[in-house]
Design goal:
The protein has helices spanning 2-20, 155-160, and strands at residues 25-27, 42-51, 56-69, 72-81, 87-96, 102-111, 114-123, 126-129, 142-144, 150-151, 169-175, 184-198, 201-210, 219-224, 230-236, 242-247. By secondary structure, it is mainly β. The protein has one domain (25-247). The model is unreliable at 1-20 (pLDDT under 50). This is DUF3108 domain-containing protein. Residues 1-22 form the signal peptide.
Amino acid sequence: MRATRLFCSTLAAVLLAGAAHAAPQYVAAGTPLPRFHLLKEGSHRYLRYLQAADSNTPLDIWQRDIRFEGKRVTIRQRWDAVGKSPSVKWLDSSFEAGTLRPLSHTRITQKDGRKTVEGFAFAPDKVTGLPDLPGNTQKALAIASPEPAFNFEADMELLQALPLAEGYEAQLVLYHPGGPAAPARYTFRVAGSEAIAGPAGPVDCWVVTTDYNQPGTVSKFWFARATQLMVRQESRMPDGRLLVKTLID
């Protein structure tokens, strides 16, 4: 009997260890997201800045608005950049409710007195330029997507809707609309948990990491465990500086 109990305890330990290092779970665009209910209507603002050994250089204030419109979700973003060349960028993205399968995406940038308009339509097998959007500089775009892709510019909300837990890994096909890289799979891993400072005090967070398919680099996200809202992100730049995105409100 004692030997049986020992065997069962050992087997349980092995199974738990295996679960902690399970293969990444592939999340297909268009499938229901387990924690989609954590996405709430409203606005949040983030400060982006570059951190060096002895300095912090502000880049922009970044606002994200979520709205539910029937069977669709709209995420609108505004980036107000500072510095020598101030600029404003507006992003307007629509998604299928419950899955965050991307439907359309527009990006308008105002800089140095010039306005640039970009618009995209997502389909299961490709991403194309919106043909009827006035002034669309991406009208001729046609990118094949062997697997349905998520919109990279809504990665924060996508990760928020996943079942984050110790040892969880997710593999997602992502595409940055109009970017040089084709749609590709990226792996995000819950590396642990940590309490960090938030706008209203300490926040218990899941720590999520990815290398964005660039081995040797690591980007870290902190998602509040209670709401899975992103509180902070850090990414090391090629010049050694740290790019920080931190929640303001």
